[in-house]
Specification:
The structure is a single chain. This protein has strands at residues 6-23, 26-43, 49-57, 61-71, 76-85, 91-92, 110-121, 124-135, 138-141, 149-151, 154-167, 171-180, 183-189, 194-199, 202-214, 217-234, 240-256. A hairpin with a 4-residue loop joins strand 13 (183-189) and strand 14 (194-199). With 258 residues, it is mostly beta strands. It has a 17-stranded mixed sheet that branches. 9% of the residues are buried.
Length: 258
């Protein structure tokens, strides 16, 4: 919701990933997301309704991870990773009035690092990991010049805590949450108006259920709750506009090891 306007988004997403154990304790991977039939339905305070759709492939993410610690005696392990996501053009938002579909691109490139530690004891696995990402300047193309804008580079960081419990060799459950640290982005609209977008700190808790029907196959069902607040201050009037984004996200996963 923002200034009395409520927006509902329904979407279908397929996350495709492949990982390969390159050499001892080093893994390389590729991640791609396919979005189709995303429908955005907005209602203003005056009752005006607009609809827009988006679909397409995302920017691919290339990653490498190094398992630098593996202590079987204590159950401790550590991992360090690097990732890069190149840009393949502007992010385009859908425009229902003009029958224009949006895309699934981010509008900018990014690079990041991850540091993770895990502790395993009998049927329990505890993990904590932190990420730091740098997002380059990018561009978002909207239906109007005022809503199209260029974003300045910015940093973003997260901290995740997970606790996984195994119930026998085939079933497990995991509870945890990811905290997104506050960040700020400078934006310049295509009509020359500058604004500052601020994202407050928020946490996405999740519950994951897992089943291993085969030693090389893992099926997962993940439920995540999302609630974030964003404030935008325009340079022309100095007025602050606050929007809230709330979602319940359900993800079904399939992992096959060869």
């Amino acid at each position: 919701t923002s200034r009395g306007q409520t927006t509902t988004i329904a979407r279908n997403t397929v996350i495709l990933g492949a990982a390969y154990g390159w050499i001892h304790r080093i893994q390389i991977s590729l991640l791609e997301t396919l979005l189709w039939d995303q429908n955005l339905d907005s209602h203003t305070a005056q009752g005006v309704e607009t609809e827009a759709t988006s679909q397409g492939l995302s920017n691919p993410t290339f990653a490498a991870a190094w398992r630098f610690l593996e202590d079987g005696g204590t159950g401790l392990s550590g991992e360090f990773g690097l990732d890069a996501t190149p840009s393949f053009g502007s992010k385009v938002t859908g425009d229902g009035k003009n029958n224009r579909d949006g895309n699934n691109l981010s509008g900018s490139s990014s690079a990041g690092a991850t540091l993770a530690f895990y502790w395993r004891a009998i049927f329990n696995e505890l993990g904590i990991l932190g990420t730091m990402n740098h997002n380059s300047s990018g561009h978002t193309e909207a239906a109007t010049v005022a809503n199209s804008f260029a974003s300045a580079p910015y940093w973003a960081a997260t901290v995740t805590l997970n606790d996984r419990i195994h119930f026998g060799p085939n079933f497990f459950t995991e509870v945890g949450g990811t905290g997104f640290l506050a960040n700020q982005t400078d934006q310049t609209a295509d009509d020359g108006i500058e604004r500052i977008s601020s994202q407050s700190f928020y946490i996405n808790p999740h519950l994951l259920l897992g089943f291993r029907p085969d030693p090389n196959v893992v099926l997962t069902l993940n439920l995540m709750s999302h609630h974030a607040t964003t404030s935008v201050i325009g340079s022309r009037t100095g007025a602050e506009v606050t929007s809230e984004n709330t979602a319940i996200i359900c993800t079904i996963g399939l992992l096959h090891q060869f």
